[in-house]
Structure formats: C-alpha cells, structure tokens
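Lecture 7 notes: from sequence to structure.
We start with the chain below.
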Amino acid sequence: MKLAILSRNGKLYSTRRLAEAARARGHSVRVLDPLRCYLKIGEDGFEMHYKGARVTGYAAVVPRIGASVTRYGCAVLRQFELMGSATPSSADAIARARDKLHAHQLLAAQGIGLPRTVFGDNPDDTTDLLAMLGPPPHVIKLNEGAQGAGVMLTEKLSASRGAIETLRGLYANFLVQEFIAEAKGADLRCFVVGGRVVAAMRRQAAKGDFRSNLHRGGTARAARLSREEAATAVRAAAVLGLGVAGVDMLRSQRGPLVLEVNSSPGLEGIETATGIDVAGCIVDYVAGLAGARRKRTANAGFTDV
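Predicted structure tokens for the same chain:
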C-alpha cells in the first residue's frame, strides 16, 4: 500500500511511529506537509502537487492535522478523498470534532453524557446564561483550544463573569461547563480505532491544576474501562464520523461524561502508558479500508488511482 501521512513535522513522535509501523508492515510511506500541498479543482477532475511534483497513486492517507491549520489541512484531505484515497477520518468529520460547540450538540442529540454546557454571545445575557448552568465552579473553554490551552476554572460567580467579559472583548468563541468535582482532576483517554477501543489510560492532573493533559504536567497509567465507558467512547467517535479518535471522558456520579473527541490524538502518552502498538492498530485499520476500497472499485469496473 502506498500511504501518505499529512503532518507538518515528520519528526514528531506520532508521525514517526505511524511511518515506522507502516514500513514494518511492508507499506510505502511518505510524510506530506499539508501546507506544501496545492490543489487544482475543475470539472475535468482533481489534481494535487507537492513541492513541484504531482501527487498521485496514494491508496490511503492518515491525517495528523494540527488545530492551527484545520481549514487548509481539511481542504487537502478532502482533495485526497475526491482523488480516491481512503482515510480513517474524513475532512468533514475532523472539522466537526474541532468545533467543540458543534460536536457537543451532535453528541447530546444522541444521548451521550456530557458536562452541562452553556453558550451565549451577548453580554446582556451573561447573568442568565450562568444561571442556566448553575453555581460555580465553572470550566470555561475556548471553542478551538487544544492540549489544555484556553481552559480556565473559575470558583466564584464574579470570576466567571470577569473571564467571560474578557474573552468577549477578545472576540473569542468559548463554552462554559459545569465542574465535575468527583473526577478529582482525573480523566480517561480512550483511543478508538475502527469502532473499538484499542487502548485506554487514566490521566491525573498535576498538583494544583485541574487539567489532566500530559503536556500540562499530568501523569498517566493504563486504565481498565467498564462496558459503559467503552461503549460511550465508541459511540462518540461514531457520531462524529471518526475512524480514529481520542475520546476524553470523566467518571461521574451519573456515569461517563464525554469532555472532547480528538480527531488527531497523540500516540506517545497512550503507547507509553499502555505498552500497546496503537500506531500499528491505525495502520492495519487504514490498510483494511484501502483494500476494501480497491475491491469496490474493481467490482464497479473502474481503475483505482
């Protein structure tokens, strides 16, 4: 299989591990910086070039698109899809997951447990908005933040109002959520590949912080999930259309609550904590998708790209 990995940096752990796992399985791999891909779109078809050369013949593409390049990265991924490449997560699915508000609406509509969440735009509505949520502590999140950046905990109503006013002054999009005290600064990262949880870890926030992200000094160890937790993670990924996802959840008194569904979850923390070859699971899944696509194309009488 000829495989492309969309990543800004081929030296990053996740990108490197995916390339290693693919080559170990006999696949041809190339890492492409999505910002160096440029596209031709016309009624006669789709074309892509990379650093002056035409991009063609990729059976599959694995997206590792950072939040800062979501729009352009998704355009490149969509072009690959239109050119016939298989991908574990479509461009549209990644865009849905990156918009926290949209993702929360879709998950809630399917009855998936979430922390209570409010969203509003007008400063005149702040008092009633917070009343809808309930008393503090409150968690305030930027709508497109990542790795714990842009997440604040406010313990007084005046602090919540002040943070909201500041973010509105910066024209930032944000959500306000209830704080789940019984989680005690811990969450679960469930790694979903192809409709099953292949690895899970419990992350604990560093002392004095409530964010359990490993990039923020949190620690991690392998976790054993309940059936309800595993089923919730799989459903959350499916609702957003992600074949590969990192589903972050809290253990609460009312069951598992989904915090976020990450479309480009990092591999280093989960592989280190669990010892599981998650990169290999992803490559095997993508190879299966590419094989199924080739079979459908052959049965339809078309020539694959």
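Points to note: The longest strand covers residues 196-204. The chain has nine helices and 15 strands.
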